[in-house]
Amino acid sequence: MDLTAFFQLLDATLRLATPLLLACLAGLFSERAGIFDIGLEGKMLVAAFLAAAVAAVTGNVWLGLLMGIGGSLVLSGLHGLASITFRGNQLISGVAINFLAAGITVVAAQAWFAQGGRTPQLGAGSRFAEIQLPGFAALRDIPLLGPLLADVVSGHTILVYVALLAVPVSWWVLFRTRFGLRLRAVGENPAAVDTAGVSVIRLRFAAVAIAGLLCGLAGAHLSTAEPAAGFIRDMTAGRGFIALAALIFAKWRPWGALGACLLFGFLQALSLRPATIEAVIGLRVQTQFLDALPYILTVVILAGFVGRAIPPRAGGEPYVKER
Amino acid sequence: MDRMPRWADVLLVPALSLLLAGAISALVILAIGENPWQALTIMVTGALGSTYGWGYTLYYATNFIFTGLAVALAIHARLFNIGAEGQAAIGGLGVALAMLHLPWPHWSLALLGAMVASALFGAAWALIPAILQAKRGSHIVITTIMFNFIAAALLNYLLVGPLKPPGTMETATARFPPETHLPDFRQMFSWGDTVLFRGTPANITFFVALLACVAVWFLVWRTRLGYEIRAFGLSEPAARYAGIGATRIITVTMLLSGALAGLMAINNTLGEAERLILNAVEGAGFIGIAVALMGRAHPLGVFLAAILFGALYQGGAELALWTSIPREMVVVIQALVILFTGALDNMVRMPVERLFARRRARAALSPPGPTLHPPGRAAAPSDPGKPAE
Hints:
The complex is a heterodimer of chains A (323) and B (389).
Chain A: H1 3-32, H2 40-58, H3 61-85, H4 90-113, H5 145-153, H6 158-176, H7 178-188, H8 190-195, H9 200-224, H10 239-249, H11 254-271, H12 274-281, H13 287-303
Helix pairs in contact in A: 1-5, 1-6, 1-9, 1-10, 1-11, 2-3, 2-4, 2-9, 2-10, 3-4, 3-9, 6-7, 6-11, 7-9, 10-11, 10-13, 11-13
Chain B: H1 6-31, H2 36-48, H3 51-76, H4 84-101, H5 107-136, H6 140-160, H7 185-189, H8 205-222, H9 224-234, H10 236-241, H11 246-273, H12 284-294, H13 299-322, H14 329-343, H15 345-363
Helix pairs in contact in B: 1-14, 1-15, 2-3, 2-13, 3-8, 3-11, 3-12, 3-13, 4-5, 4-6, 4-11, 4-12, 5-6, 5-11, 8-9, 8-13, 9-11, 12-13, 12-14, 14-15
């Protein structure tokens, strides 16, 4: 494999890792606050649909992004209502949200556009454009590093950079601010936080809302940042669950999330290029095996044979203030 | 549980949840410019108005009974088996391998063989998540989700590769031999010139599903193992104190749950398609969650809820045929049912409990004062494993 092909692979990795990373960080905030969220998939799907639909109708992709985030936040609110206010089962709430999203996006797309559950393809003006980072093209002549910067790092849509930036920001918020300390405490021992006079309910709703925001970005990336932009039914295709797997892989840490999502993005990029793998290792690897690999790796990690993953202690349990 | 009478818990609360889900679905249908009443009429007549409709309704219901029982049984041990989808898919693999590689002289033997194969394969697919939960504490919800995807990838590989007969285009195995054809409802219930259930997939598996309901009821409420499962689900420390091993209960319950989910394959793979096709389960594993929640994890409730969802699926297909409402509307309704009967259960339950508490306080003929269950008192946090008892 020549270097150009390798850089193309890395470029695709970054692009494919972006929605995973955003959704993974969404899950990170939610689960660190003690709220399991298997509804990442549904929130991304609704955001992808609304972003594409609004961008298609208004021609303004920023408005689309805003509506996508809005839709994702509504589902977050529903999840919060069910799992925080009414102390329902968080897993069941997540399952319901995934189905709600899978159904309502197709029903609405059919009612609005009548194209078999998809939105019209977005033209160049109504989707996110690739940004050439200033000065990077001039560095192309540096051997190895030059093309890496010019072809792999530069030339992505804004959401890719937002996702990358979200990693240090999440780390800073969670581990260097008072809010983050309380948020993590609420996922470990909500009673202690309550005793300290801090509202568990408000903190958990804040965490769920941040998750909604990040899922909104992730969904918008799927439908408005590719060259063939637009919404198609079930376009998340399990990415919400890969993000969940990445979260476990990352052991609920932001930098780990970056690594896990880049790894899983790399696997996705590889499975799109079966010829490349055959050329490099001289063996034909089934793409289905690569598709299943994130899940298999996660099960192995969960089994605790390779570094045990320990979730936040109060995860999944509704908090009852007093008995 | 004496906050409200049993009939309210078993009938009133689910009925209210269903009503809420229906009302919101009606609003969605209104919002896309269709008539909800007309939609309801089409769905009811389409699903229940003819033996053709019933033939499909009962076929879908058979699938949902198996997956519903699978989820329900796990709920009794407070395990949330979200992996019925993958277990049913692997059950289908078991049926296909057995039907294609062993000689079957008669359909009755084929049915028995398919039951054994599907149950074994389904149980095997639940085994690793079960062991990981029991031995390593890995959350069963996450592992079963992962196993759903692994099952999908495995079947995808097998059906475009090794199991596909050469020269065919369809991603499916070869057809099963004609001797394995199960009697369908048309053959069973038509006589003379009266042909009932024409062209519908409902088959003898429906009665196997009924037997499975009885078997699960017997297991849970009439055997020692069932007692242990329920005790474990109600309180793990108490069960452990009583000498009930967590590892054994988790493993056995999940194996049985996986076997029940796997059994679904005799309906859709042997009974209907007569070959293993890609995505044969079509989400029935997830509908099992809705069915189990709606049916309060009791076999009778699962049976009724499965019929309801079967009718919903057939009605939804008719709806897509006669109106511009796509089939996915059914998924929305299903999501709302899961939401209201599962996640928002307390929202429906608490006002009802309050109402009964107030009525009881009045009936006690004592001056209004503090009662045992003051109005407004929050209920205990709901869990998926609230058995019907």
